[in-house]
Prior knowledge:
Elements: E1 3-13, E2 18-23, H1 28-31, E3 37-42, E4 45-57, E5 60-65, H2 71-74, E6 81-85, H3 99-102, E7 106-109, E8 114-122, E9 130-134, E10 141-144, E11 150-154, E12 159-162
Parallel strand pairs: 7-12
Antiparallel strand pairs: 1-2, 1-6, 2-5, 3-4, 3-6, 4-5, 7-8, 8-9, 9-10, 11-12
Amino acid sequence: MRYVPIGKIVNTHGLKGEVKVESWSDFDDVRYELGNTIYVETKEGMLPLQVASYRIHKNHPLVSFADYQDINAVEPFKFCVLYIKEEDRHTLPEGKFYVDQLIGLKVYEVNGDYIGEVIGVEETNGAQKNLRVQREGQKDALIPNVPAFVKKVDLEKQRIEIEAIEGLL
């Protein structure tokens, strides 16, 4: 079974078992819907947790879990990663991809020249996300993930084609 990371517990909040989550998901209100099962990765393996409550506080999700309604019960979860099953992931519109689908793809210019491999997808200040491409023997390249540069993403072939303008690489 494959799991997809959706966030990380960064702290506890209050005494009633709420945890503060650093979210990596665009669908928090769906992910943490009352009764949903999410998984926390512990030293013993994946532990299923049922969402008991969810709210936003100072731009961070606060989540509590059934049977873990006490600060002492959730304290061991601090700094643990939260997951969902891969099959519970939303289907994205055509041309949209999850970050983990892009990591590891090989990047080529439209003329076929190899550039490197995607090692990260980075947020900018609200504009677009950038693909961090590791290049052999050179500094990493940051390529804006917009149609003007990213011309084709082929998950089956594990390949991205870009149109590089002068100064991009």
